[in-house]
């Protein structure tokens, strides 16, 4: 332990922001186009809409937009590490974090890198950020979970696609929540969901992945209880990784046993329902799904208060799972956006045919490996061109 590592130092999320695409596909329309009962999506998945990103909107632009929504110019001078967690990488070598660092104008003497382990990556990034702040208490770390889930038209995973980014500023003495030192992680070498380099969409063993998600939840939760002797009564809410909300609901029900009072079960269910509101309108955003659920809970729950402990279950196929907890700090409500549901309802709805054109459009390069893009006027940041195979981004100037 060095001189800076104090036993009572609190480290956690000081600010949290979110960004998604301007376009949305209503699953009622998709169900009709695919000839399925709409309740297969609304009740079978607990999903109503999915965010659709055009070619000019990718993990870099979404990450920059989410970060810009929360950062001050002073914080950009104070951040000394940028971590982007994603499984939708746009380059096999250069980290998305380097692009984001440049777009945001963060001071140059900062580490910037990318983390990958399916949907678990952002949890690993948060832990890394926490350790960094422990050793350098004045540091501020920007952790971003940014992904675009894309399975293809008329595939089984089509209604669980989505696009979005969650940005979190990690500091000491945070103003939203603090991390508890109680992380329990588990690794299993399995093939439930994967995407080889040569494939633009993933391969999924759906039933097997569902089973692994739930079994990892059971065994990781059991180990967590064994190590820390905490029960569900100790938590005001549980947030889950949300590939689709119905799977998380199964997870919640598997955790609630007969020893839990009806009142507590009702409270946990009520807060769960608040935690899935955004995901029901966005879909799956891989690394960001757990933290989108956390954001949804914080901005919509009516029975939370400072001092409440929240449990989080992270899962990334392949597979790594983790169970850990956080604690709300006094005044956290002031750093949230209580109008986010209204803003999400104002996105542009696409017809199914337009969605198929927008979401699955492929880049066409000329003989020099170049192309220019248009139609990004309503974005905050955009991929504006590819020049000799180099992706070039810009902040969009509003007229």
What does this structure look like?
The chain is of the alpha+beta class. It is 32% helix and 25% strand. The protein contains 13 helices and 18 strands. Helix 3 crosses helix 5, helix 7 packs parallel to helix 8 and helix 9 packs across helix 11. The chain is globular. The N and C termini lie far apart (53 Å).
List the helices and strands and how they pair.
Blueprint: E1 11-20, E2 23-26, H1 27-34, H2 39-42, E3 49-52, H3 59-68, H4 73-78, E4 79-85, H5 96-104, E5 111-115, H6 121-135, E6 140-149, E7 162-172, E8 177-179, E9 184-187, E10 193-194, E11 203-204, H7 206-228, E12 237-240, H8 245-255, H9 262-275, H10 279-282, H11 289-300, E13 309-316, E14 320-328, H12 340-344, E15 348-349, H13 352-359, E16 371-372, E17 381-387, E18 390-395
Parallel strand pairs: 2-15, 4-5, 4-6, 12-13
Antiparallel strand pairs: 1-7, 1-8, 2-3, 6-7, 8-14, 9-14, 10-11, 13-14, 16-17, 17-18
Helix pairs in contact: 3-5, 7-8, 9-11
* Cα-atom radius of gyration: 20 Å
Structural class: alpha+beta
Alpha plus pi helix count: 13
Distance between the termini: 53 Å
- The geometry reads as globular
**Uncertain stretches:** 1-7
Main beta-sheet annotation: 10 strands, mixed
Oligomer designation: single chain
Number of strands: 18
Mean pLDDT: 96
Helix content: 25-40%
Q: Which range does the strand content fall in?
A: 25-35%
């Amino acid at each position: 332990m060095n001189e800076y590592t104090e036993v009572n130092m609190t480290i956690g999320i000081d600010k949290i922001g979110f960004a998604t695409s301007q376009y949305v596909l209503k699953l009622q329309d998709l169900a009709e186009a695919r000839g399925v009962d709409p309740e297969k999506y609304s009740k079978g998945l607990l999903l109503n809409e999915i965010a659709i990103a055009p070619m000019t909107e990718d993990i870099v632009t979404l990450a920059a937009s989410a970060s810009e929504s929360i950062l001050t110019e002073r914080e950009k001078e104070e951040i000394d590490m940028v971590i982007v967690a994603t499984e939708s990488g746009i380059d096999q070598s250069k980290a998305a974090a380097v692009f984001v660092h440049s777009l945001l104008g963060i001071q140059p003497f900062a580490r910037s890198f990318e983390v990958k382990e399916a949907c678990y990556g952002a949890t690993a990034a948060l832990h890394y950020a926490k350790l960094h702040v422990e050793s350098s208490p004045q540091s501020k770390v920007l952790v971003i979970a940014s992904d675009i889930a894309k399975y293809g038209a008329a595939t089984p995973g089509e209604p669980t696609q989505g696009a979005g980014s969650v940005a979190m500023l990690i500091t000491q003495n945070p103003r939203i929540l603090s991390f508890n030192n109680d992380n329990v992680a588990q690794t299993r070498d399995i093939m439930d969901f994967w995407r080889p380099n040569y494939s633009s969409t993933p391969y999924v063993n759906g039933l097997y992945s569902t089973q692994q998600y739930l079994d990892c939840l059971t065994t990781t939760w059991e180990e967590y209880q064994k190590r820390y002797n905490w029960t569900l009564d100790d938590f005001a809410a549980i947030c889950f990784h949300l590939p689709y909300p119905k799977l998380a609901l199964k997870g919640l029900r598997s955790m609630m046993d007969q020893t839990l009072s009806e009142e507590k079960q009702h409270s946990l269910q009520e807060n769960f329902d608040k935690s899935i509101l955004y995901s029901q309108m966005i879909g799956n955003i891989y690394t960001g799904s757990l933290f989108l659920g956390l954001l949804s809970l914080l901005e919509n729950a009516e029975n939370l208060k400072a001092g409440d402990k929240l449990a989080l279950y992270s899962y990334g196929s392949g597979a790594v799972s983790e169970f850990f907890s956080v604690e709300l700090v006094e005044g956290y409500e002031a750093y949230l956006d209580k109008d986010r549901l209204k803003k999400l309802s104002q996105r542009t709805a696409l017809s199914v045919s337009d969605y198929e054109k927008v979401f699955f459009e492929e880049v066409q390069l000329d003989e020099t490996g170049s192309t220019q893009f248009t139609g990004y006027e309503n974005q905050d940041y955009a991929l504006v061109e590819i020049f000799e195979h180099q992706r070039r981004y810009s902040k969009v100037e509003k007229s």
